[in-house]
Amino acid sequence: MEEKKNNASSFGGSNHQADNQLFRKSALLLSLMVLAGIISQNVFHLVGQLFQATGLDWLAGLVVYLAITALFSKPLFKLVDQPPFNVTNLAAIALATALGTFVPQHIGLPSTGTVGKLINLLQLNDLFHSWWYVAFFVLLAAGLVKISSRKNWSLDNLGFHLAHLSPILILCGFWVDYFLGFRGIIKLEEGQQSNTVLLSKGHSGFLHDSTELGFHLRLDHFEFEKYQPDYRIQLWKQDTAGHAVAVSSHGSASKASPPEILASFPLEPGKIHRIFGTQMHFRLSKFYPDFEFDYEYPLRADTIEAKDPGLMVDLKTPEGDAFVQLQANKAGRNKLGDVVNLGAALEFYWEMPDEVRNTLNKKPFGKENRIIFEGKTEKIHFLLNGDLVVKPLKTNEFHAMSDNDSIGFSVRFLMPDIGYMKAVPSTKSEELKNPVAKVEVWKKGGPAQAVYLYPNSSGRKGGTFMVPGTSHFLAMESTKDKETKFYKSDLSVLDENGQVLKERSVRVNEPMQFGGYRFYQTDYDSNNPSYSGIGVSHEPGLIVIYLGFFLLVAGVTHMFYFRGRQGL
Amino acid sequence: MIESFYYSSLLFKVSALAYLLVLMAYLAAVFVKKRWMGKASLALFGAAFLICSALIASRWIAAGRPPFKSLYESLVFAVWTISLVSLVAEWRFRVKLVGLLSSLGIAGILLFSLSKRDVEIIALPPALQTWMFIPHVISYFVAYGALFVAGLGAVLHLFFPGGMASHHTLGEQEKIDFSVFTYQIAKLGFLFLTAGLLLGAWWGQNAWSNYWAWDPKENWALVTWLVFAAYLHLRNIGSMDGRKLAWVVIAGVLAVVFTYLGMDYLPTAGDSLHTYSGN
Known about the structure:
The complex is a heterodimer.
Chain A: H1 16-51, H2 57-71, H3 73-79, H4 83-100, H5 113-121, H6 131-150, H7 158-180, E1 182-189, E2 193-201, E3 206-226, E4 232-237, H8 241-250, E5 260-265, E6 272-274, E7 280-288, E8 291-296, E9 310-317, E10 320-327, E11 335-336, E12 345-349, H9 354-361, E13 370-374, E14 379-384, E15 387-392, E16 399-400, E17 408-415, E18 422-427, E19 436-443, E20 448-453, E21 465-466, E22 472-477, E23 484-494, E24 500-507, E25 512-514, E26 517-524, E27 531-538, H10 542-561
Parallel strand pairs in A: 12-13
Antiparallel strand pairs in A: 1-2, 1-27, 2-3, 3-23, 4-5, 4-22, 6-7, 7-19, 8-18, 9-10, 9-17, 11-12, 13-14, 14-15, 16-17, 19-20, 21-22, 23-24, 25-26, 26-27
Chain B: H1 2-7, H2 10-31, H3 35-63, H4 71-93, H5 97-115, H6 133-159, E1 164-165, E2 175-176, H7 178-208, H8 216-237, H9 242-261
Antiparallel strand pairs in B: 1-2
Helix pairs in contact in B: 2-3, 2-5, 3-4, 4-5, 4-6, 5-6, 6-7, 6-9, 7-8, 8-9
């Protein structure tokens, strides 16, 4: 609090007028440096081609750049340790960096049109690797060295030196990596091995070349997993008012606005929710993780008049378990062809018609296999392979159609009137195989309506419910399982003879190090579960960069809070 | 907006109402020039901060992960860090006008967060499943909170370049110099901004094999860092008057806001690995 505003500089005293002059000079000099960078990089592109065969094309450009820079060497040398110059340089880097985010950065963008040509000419399409942008950092590093060298090396100034010299470490590490390091990817499928790294260039990930490692990498196993589903009741709003206006004003239908999710509620049975701005309420009545209907029929079926006879048969077939419901009085629903490979067609009659009875009384019976259920007499007629066998029709008695009981059927209900059958919702298991939510919806003071909600799943549209008198609908979905939980690769490093040198699982955030290289879990393909993309990086400057990071934070902390003076 | 508020969690509603009370208390304190009024506002601010802490904790428990994944979650966390820095600044500098402006800003953020409220809790993708997620985000949001409060100091300096009389303060001091206030808070913000930037680079190396990918968000994080580095140097070399320095800080805060919320408007946004869910 005692600190004075605009206190004397820790770089040395200054006055406004002189500093303003320095700021102007700095801005002019940096602008000229940008111009020099643009000219020399373009000259490099033109002249460099002549030297390409010699491999010295970079030298040609550098010579041009240095020659132009030499023109400014005197003012540069004078200004480079001046705080105004370095602050102007910071501002220039900030402006250029911001500019680079407004122009798409792609390597080798073709120059199209005047704007495209101008962007290429100024290297704006690869701004962060342009010579003039790099020059800002070179000047910054030079300035930091000179400024730091002028300051006393005392414990009190330790933070100052660390804060000003550590960025140089970071820049040096960065440049070492740029010139001597590489990043790329090894694409592998389970069981495959490779030593070929497809190299990426720049931040665009453009794969332009490849290199070979001195060892092989083998993908032993790849695992990929999504999150477990977390089903919730969702309240959506689809306001069609805007759509209606659009239709009436233009005379043609336009796309309705997409529905907007308003709320999501966990599956808490009994908890009442009100729909905002309406009198409508709803609550989850029951959740069925693996929904199925459980059917019930009165035990004393013999007292029921045979108005609409029905038969429910459970089937065990090569295609799996199923059940069918036959209705004697409904044409087309009283027979089932052998579509499930049971080995026979099914027929159900309450009283067997004469033509069917005549067929059963007359040999030979024909080659068609038929199982005929007769409700009134409670008999089953097996007409199989030219023979007729009659058995009593008893419920829950399994009739095998093969030697090993793997195919067959049993009658669940024989119903004189199918109208008495009740379908009761239930769950087959506690596993989330076929989730369904029973929800009650009601208007305040009115009766409740039971509705069933179920999620969208592959090939099946979800069961939703439009709440009457509102523009809201209810749904049940899970969003969590749309996100990838993890993917990991079990890798082995092999030498030339196939000998395993190292084995490790690699996940995102858990790379493997070997022989000066780092291996990352980078890529996967949800359509190819055995593919894994292993990122490879060789960054000899990384340790220097990390050291720079640590020293920068330590330096700034010391400079701000552990020294007497508060200057930078 | 009201509909979104209706469906928000109970703790969010209580937090929002608490901050609204804080704002009203600070407004009243401007007119009722009593020290007890200033202290009551500060106490209310503290209570609202605790409720906001409970909101974040409950979200953390419900999500089973740090609640910094979506834009909505990060906005609530920004409210928390702004509150934290404001409370510390108010206690340290004994000035109540900062609380007024902070609570005004917080009310705006909470209102904005309603439009970004994520209805579903989003699971963390593999890259975010690391302990580094927590210090990186906390560093950045403490920095953002501090720089926001520094920005408020800069605005106050523009209105009161000669400082502020004691009746607007909580303590015994005659005047408060907002350029000093701004500088002290900006230093704190810059330290955390530096830590956040470097922790992010370290994490990027582990997750994506790249400590610096020239991603738009990374670039704007660098821009923000450079602007505040320039401010701190400009203030120390003493070559710029207080009003101009205040404008530099305000420009820095605008850069922070753009870094935080503006990435989707950039033509290079498609290259970014730093987009918020629910944005």
